[in-house]
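Appendix B. Chain record.
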Amino acid sequence: MQKLAFKFTSLVIVGFLLFFSCQKTTIISTKHLTEKVIIIVMDGARFSETWGDSSHTFTPNLSNIIASKGCAFNEFYNNGDTYTSPGHLAMLSGQYYNLNNSGTELPPFPTIFQYFNQTYPNKKSWLIASKDKLEVLANTSDTKYNNLHLANTDCGISGLGSGYRDDSITLQNSLNILANQHPDLTLINFREPDFTAHMSDSLGYLNQIKKVDSLIYELFKLTETNTNFKEKTTIFITNDHGRHNDLNGGYSNHGDNCLGCRQIMLFATGPDFKTNSVISSNYELIDIAPTIAELMCFELPNSQGKVMSELFK
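Structure tokens predicted for this chain:
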């Protein structure tokens, strides 16, 4: 009898673990309404010109419309290298790493794309970017994953090494891919306002924040109306980095530890998240990936981030 009881108890424990262990960082539930996830990146905007501006002059759609349908963050940071490629890698992997910012180095570890594709080989993932150099984030130099489980890519003019393209093209390509391919996991990068800020064009920098705000809203409207995305899509809208504050050189550049470079916006909406909520706890870029792994139920080894549990209803 004792042996039978032991075997029964062991089976119950194993069954329990299998049921709740869809991935290592699960802390909420294995049952989520989210079926699709989109990350949208406004490249290189300071928090002080986005959610941190109480007037919401340059982000009327993000701060007034989209924020009301989900959560906005008061204390969200890039605590790694405040450049484009490392910033995107952090949000896609849950790890900080000083990846070469020129697009000449593959990440040393896989991102959520490869782990997701490995887990769900019949589902689709896309990496769409105005900046061609971000195409490297679809792959890794890790020999166990190199050239395996790759995301589809649409980056720059015609891929890695081809140069940047205008954000209006990225918007149209994104709308077409979403409408026709119905991807399950997507990252979309808009190069502005970073591109114009580097030209030391202060008015252009602000105008580009407002322009990208409107482009993001076009994507958001598609997910609200298209039956492939409606009521089943979670969206994260953030920056890869900010820009120097006025005491550290001003808006035209970035890359140090000043608050202007580190503090960035995050808006998060989805069927599993609270609505019309402001979150004031500290979170960071590396927390996006494990939260996505939680929502989509796949393994994310070696993540340094945490699931943003405050988002959930």
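Further analysis of this model is presented in Appendix C.
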